[in-house]
Structure formats: structure tokens, C-alpha cells
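User: My instructor asked us to take a sequence, write out its structure as C-alpha cells, and then describe one feature of it. I'm not sure where to start. Here is the sequence I was given:
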Amino acid sequence: MTAPGTASWPPAPTRTERLVLRASEARDRAVFIELFASPEVGTYIGGAQPRERLEEAVPEVPGQRPGFFVIDLDGAMIGVITLDPRGPEDPARLSPGAGVTDLGYLLLPEAWGRGYAAEACEAALAWFAAAHPGEPLGLRTQTVNDRAMRLAAKLGFAEVERFEAYGAEQWSGIRPPAPR
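Assistant: Let's start with the prediction itself. The C-alpha cells for your sequence are:
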């Protein structure tokens, strides 16, 4: 597995019909805090984080790391996409000694139900396939998160395993690499 950081980072903004995936900027800080402090967003990721702690901990320009995209709609951040390496020591790995990169996404509640997650994920998957040809992608979510389970299927992820973590049943899927 090649970490997302081995490709040129940050990449040029990726445009879709309605969105732009781009590197984070200082103007995104308040929305970043809102995203991670939101009880609705926190439902399937271990809960909302305390706003006071986020205000202290979030850097001036949040998310400046390889594999982190801001989802931008009409010049404003509405969420994030992440591509994070899952190491061979991870209990939810594909096979012993094998790593994979996980796709993750979070959107503000007011952006839910409009197809933005699918559009942004498809763009991130296309970027990853071009930057890391032949490499699979993983995705994990709680099985009770119906929207995420439907999106995983729509994006072509197939179940690898289910496991218990964070007090809930988790689903782990893999999206095979596109043929070269």
C-alpha cells in the first residue's frame, strides 16, 4: 500500500458538477469545529466532541495533511473526505500483514440527503485511483448507519467482515482497484 502522502499533496482542486474537493484553508476552521461538535454528525463516530476542546485544539488551518479534502459547495465548506492508511496491525484489516487505505467522509447535517456525499466520494475515489493505480480502498461504518451502508454499496464496496468496536457492530468493506 502506498500512503496518500506519497502522491503530490495537496493536489489541485477536484471539481465535480456541484462541488470542489480542495485543501483546507484558515477560513474552514469554524466549520470544521461545527462539524466535529455536531451531535448529529457524531452519532456514528463516537459522539460529538466538546466545542471548548475543539476551540483549543483545532489549528488555525485544520486538516493540513495528505489524504484530507474539504468538500466545498459554492465557496463554503460543507464537509470533509479523508483517505487514511489502515496499517497491517489494525484489527479490521484485509489479511495478516496487508494494509489498505480507508475512505471516510463527514458532512454538515444541512448537507445531508442531497447526494453530496456520493458526489464527493466518487471524486475522491477517482483521484485515488489515478494517484495510486491498482490499490484497493476500504470503508468502515456502523451497521446501523443505513445511509452509509447504502452509499458503500453504491460506491462498489463489498463486505469483508463485521466486528464489534466502540460498543456497536461495525461493517468493513473493500473496493477492488479498477482494472488498469
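For the description part of your assignment, you could build on this observation: The chain has five helices and eight strands. Try explaining in your own words what that tells you about the chain.
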